[in-house]
């Protein structure tokens, strides 16, 4: 009953904007309404209201009510909207996003994070960048395709998860349901960079891979005893020696077909020393000087291989007692193509101490390989970006963080981050204070999505 009431309210709100509303205005207005809904995990989570809002917009744009499903899950929900194609034998094209946002405390912000504001050419509010505006741009683009009479041959499915920023439970459920998809366009990934000085588009990347997240717990146990009677083996000391080895260890640098192209094409946009090292590494991934330069740089060390770092440590139980237990967490970002179990085994060999127990304690993460460099996807991307942003360099990238693509790739469904949003690096405040995105990105983003959605669903 609650979901029905939300749907009715959302329908009335969205229908107030008639079909003559320009798509860019539709996207901005819908984004404002979505930002005003506090879709944060926990008490008062309004993600189901965002789902109702999006459903109302899709139905007003021509989707059949029965073809837009909202599924409650715990305190959140997910949405799946289906635009049937003319050929049911073709696997569907999936457009993927999420409705939830990271927590934002109003006292820390210059503006209330859940009161959308357009000021000086920017949309401010939690979700302006990650990723309510991107979601509403995609909705507006689909609605505009319908209004202009487009008929897809391949079924188009648009879906939004409800807890991508936390447990990803809805993300996993959606991927399981849609594991027969031909291809996924993840609109929560990729994107363009604006020049810091001129504000003009500098380059744009699509995301074809992401590193697997893993947490490994190190545990050392000991009988303990009185601190006045030290023993030869101390759990804290033993753990410290293991952590020192982990901290000093570097996994073998490597290249994949995707990162080879990504690093080569990104090199001209980096500082000269980093750019030269990227070029040298692509030419010879065993180049020690290039590896040293890239490993020392926090922005590039994760692009050339697996990284593992200690993030938590705990030990002992009293000031005057020998420690009976000491533990630490090692957080790893694993290069595509490797299993977490293999990385844990490698860490075990590095530590080389039978007294240190290793176990995988990862939650909400599954291993996934890179998506293939599909010619049809790359050609469609190049055509769409070439028409909307002629002359702007386009190339692939690998993300270090997890997204809903992880769950599709786990089911061997190719997934690609393909957001059209352009932003200055200095103004990217995703997950941070005073999040904002230039509204100038909306109109070209809709044109880009129209071209891309149509190209891949013909």
CATH class of the largest domain: Alpha Beta
CATH superfamily of the largest domain: Zn peptidases
CATH topology of the largest domain: Aminopeptidase
Structural class, by secondary structure, is alpha/beta
Q: Total strand count, please?
A: 19
Whole-Å distance between the termini? 39 Å
**Count of domain modules:** 2
Which geometry do the CA atoms define? globular
Major beta sheet, strand line-up: 1-2-6-3-7-17
Name the beta content range. 15-25%
Q: What is the radius of gyration?
A: 24 Å
Low-confidence stretches: 1-18
**Sheet with the most strands?**
6 strands, mixed
Query: Approximately how much helix is present in the residues?
Result: 25-40%
Number of helices: 13
Average pLDDT over all residues: 94
Q: Please name the CATH architecture of the largest domain.
A: 3-Layer(aba) Sandwich
Pfam family, one: M20_dimer
Family: Belongs to the peptidase M20A family.
Protein name: M20/M25/M40 family metallo-hydrolase
Domain Peptidase M20 dimerisation: 209-355
Keywords:
458 residues, alpha/beta, Aminopeptidase, Alpha-Beta Plaits, 2 domains, 6-stranded mixed beta sheet, 4-stranded mixed beta sheet, 19 strands, globular, disordered N terminus
What does this structure look like?
It is a single chain. The protein has 458 residues and is α/β, with parallel strands linked by helices. It has 2 domains: 2-189 and 403-456, 3-Layer(aba) Sandwich (Aminopeptidase), CATH 3.40.630.10; 212-360, Alpha-Beta Plaits, CATH 3.30.70. It contains 13 helices and 19 strands. It has a 6-stranded mixed beta sheet with strand order 1-2-6-3-7-17, with helices on both faces. Mean pLDDT is 94; it is low at 1-18. The two termini are 39 Å apart.
């Amino acid at each position: 009953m609650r979901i029905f009431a939300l749907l009715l309210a959302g329908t009335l709100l969205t229908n107030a904007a008639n079909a003559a509303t320009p798509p860019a205005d539709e996207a901005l207005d819908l984004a404002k309404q979505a930002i005003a809904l506090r879709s944060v995990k926990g008490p008062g989570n309004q993600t189901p209201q965002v789902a109702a809002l999006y459903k109302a917009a899709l139905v007003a744009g021509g989707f059949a009510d029965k073809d837009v499903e909202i599924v409650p899950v715990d305190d959140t929900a997910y949405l799946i909207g289906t635009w049937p194609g003319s050929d049911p034998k073709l696997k569907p094209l999936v457009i993927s996003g999420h409705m939830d946002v990271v927590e934002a405390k109003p006292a820390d912000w210059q503006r209330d994070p859940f009161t959308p504001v357009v000021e000086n050419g920017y949309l401010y509010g939690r979700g302006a960048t990650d990723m309510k505006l991107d979601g509403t741009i995609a909705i507006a683009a689909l609605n505009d395709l319908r209004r202009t009479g487009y008929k897809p041959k391949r079924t188009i499915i648009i879906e939004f998860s409800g807890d991508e920023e936390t447990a990803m439970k809805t993300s996993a459920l959606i991927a399981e349901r849609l594991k027969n998809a031909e291809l996924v366009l993840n609109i929560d990934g990729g994107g363009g960079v604006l020049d810091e000085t001129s504000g003009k588009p500098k380059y744009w990347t699509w995301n074809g891979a992401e590193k697997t997240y893993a947490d490994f717990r190190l545990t050392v146990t000991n009988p303990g005893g009185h601190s006045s009677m030290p023993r030869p083996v101390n759990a804290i000391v033993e753990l410290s020696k293991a952590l020192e080895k982990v901290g000093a260890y570097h996994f073998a640098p490597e290249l994949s077909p995707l990162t080879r192209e990504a690093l080569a094409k990104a090199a001209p946009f980096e500082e000269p020393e980093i750019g030269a090292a990227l070029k040298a590494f692509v030419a010879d991934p065993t180049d020690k000087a290039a590896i040293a330069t890239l490993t020392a740089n926090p922005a590039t060390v994760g692009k050339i291989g697996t990284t593992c770092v200690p993030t938590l440590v705990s030990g002992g139980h009293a000031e005057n007692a020998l420690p009976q237990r000491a533990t630490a967490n090692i957080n790893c970002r694993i290069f595509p193509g490797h299993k977490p179990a293999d990385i844990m085994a490698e860490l075990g060999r590095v530590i080389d101490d039978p007294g240190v127990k290793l176990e995988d304690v990862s939650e909400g993460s599954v291993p996934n390989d890179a998506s293939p460099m599909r010619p049809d996807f790359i050609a469609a991307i190049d055509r769409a970006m070439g028409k909307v942003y002629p002359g702007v360099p386009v190339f692939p990238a690998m993300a270090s963080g997890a997204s809903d693509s992880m769950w599709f790739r786990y089911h061997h469904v190719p997934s690609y981050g393909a957001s059209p949003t352009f932003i200055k690096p200095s103004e990217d405040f995703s997950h941070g204070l005073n999040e904002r995105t230039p509204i100038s990105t909306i109109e070209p983003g809709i044109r880009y999505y129209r071209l891309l959605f149509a190209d891949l669903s013909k």
